[in-house]
Every structure is written in structure tokens, then in C-alpha cells.
Amino acid sequence: MILALGTAAASPQQGKGYSQVPDRRRNILKAFEYYQDIRLPGNLIGDIHREYPGWIPDNSRYIVSYGSNKEVKKVYKLWLAKDDSRKKLKLSL
Q1: CA 30, CA 23: separation in Å to the nearest integer?
Q2: Could you give the 3-state DSSP secondary structure of residue 49?
């Protein structure tokens, strides 16, 4: 499912990261994971090629956030390139 579509002005930061918020007893209340330049799942690549023919994934991020009483959110943010143009996609799983 595509959540947003826009244009990318600058390249994102490189790397990966993890953050968590514990309570006083060290139980994790919420957490956040971030991965840069990951390989996209095959079904996602197929959907992108069907919906945006000729566009190539150029840069990607995978973000997972979850909390003790919340649903897990998995989001791919990626940039597509075609000639001198770029598009930014936000895909939710």
C-alpha cells in the first residue's frame, strides 16, 4: 500500500539504528529500528515495477516501530530514479 508520494531533495543518512524507551523496571515501552540501503522483498519490487514502469529503486530505508500496547508498524521509504527525475515512496506493510 502506497502511503505518500513526493520528490526527494537530498540524500538520506547512511547506516542503521535502534532506540528503545524502558520503564523503571527495564520493560521496553516502545522501540524503533532503522535500516538504510536494504534489499527490498521480491513482491514489493514487482509491485513497484508494475506501478512505475521504467523507474528503478535508488535508495531505501526500512523502519520498524512498536510499543507495549501498540501495533507493530513496518514502513519502507524509498527513492525511485528515472533519467534525471526522482520520486519518494512510502510503503506500509
Answers
A1: 10
A2: helix
> pLDDT tens digits, residue range 66-89?
887 788 999 999 999 999 999 999
Residue 15: CA count within 13 A, CB half-sphere: 3
If pLDDT is split at 50, 70 and 90, which confidence band does 8 have? very low
- Taking every pair of Cα atoms in the chain, the longest distance, rounded to a whole number of angstroms, is 53
The one-letter amino acid code at 38 reads I
The verdict on pTM exceeding 0.85 is: no
The three cell numbers of residue 85 are 527525475
**Cell numbers that stand for 91 in this block:** 510503503
In 3-state terms, what secondary structure has residue 37?
coil
